[in-house]
Amino acid sequence: MTTLNAPEATAVEGMDALPDFTTDAYKDAYSRINAIVIEGEIEAHDNYISLGTLIPEHKDELAKLARMEMKHAKGFTSCGRNLGVQADMPFAKDFFGPLHGNFQTALQEGKVVTCLLIQALLIEAFAISAYHIYIPVSDPFARKITEGVVKDEYLHLNYGQEWLKANFESSKEELFQANKANLPLIRSMLEQVASDAAVLHMEKEDLIEDFLIAYQEALDEIGFTSREKARMAAAALAG
Which residues of 126-150 are buried (b: 16+ CB within 10 A; e: fewer)? Predict the structure, then answer.
């Protein structure tokens, strides 16, 4: 089984200087970014529990992944508390609304492939990219928390990757459809968060590049050809 490993954190080129964590502008932007990562981990917890109903033979493993996600949510909550920032959770719920809705629809229809693509590939790759770009410009407390979290997220990405690889031929057409419906949402989410991320010294282009690398590496491991991966990446430009 091929396993992705979290690379060592490196400074983001051109963004070596840390932001001032005490300014009102930083705390305002952080209230939304922090809420997004907390809500993302809570959503992930709920999604992995739900996946256990679709893949009952993996229920225990998925429950373990879910517990890890809830631990992450608590860790990121403490990061906000450390800076004296109240996370804007209503904003974060709206932020994840479209993906949440698509996951719930797929869950009700028993579409395990679509659920795995949304949670274990798209959302995990999104989280990994954000954490990679955030770590070099984070405050010391949050850096320690985030470095621990990102290592766990690779385990979650690997879970979905390996299940889909083992069921590739029967999953392929649904993966194309699910990718087309959901990859554009990730693009929109990255656009929506870009201005707040910039205040935290996280560049949108770096976030997009890191996300696409993580996602396409997972597609490669699952078994897609270069032409097929290009076709799937092009879906991000749709709509």
Answer: bbbbbbbbbbbbbbeebbebbeebb
Encode pLDDT of 159-178 as tens digits.
888 999 999 999 999 999 99
At 141, the amino acid letter reads: F
Q: Does residue 218 contact residue 54 with C-beta atoms inside 8 Å?
A: no
CA–CA gap between residue 227 and residue 79 (Å, rounded): 42
- Coil, strand, or helix at residue 18? coil
Would you give the distance in Å from CA 21 to the centre of its chain?
A: 24
Contact present, 1 and 154 (Cβ < 8 Å): no
How distant is the alpha carbon of residue 206 from its chain centre? 15
> What is the three-class DSSP state of 201?
coil
Q: How far apart are CA 40 and CA 123, in angstroms?
A: 8
DSSP state of 179: H
Task: State the DSSP string of 51-73.
Answer: HHHHSGGGHHHHHHHHHHHHHHH
What pTM did the predictor assign? 0.89
d(CA 65, CA 48): 7
Q: 136 near 152, Cβ under 8 Å?
A: no
Exposure of 192 in the CB half-sphere (CA atoms within 13 A): 16
Give φ, ψ of 185 to 5 degrees: -65, -35
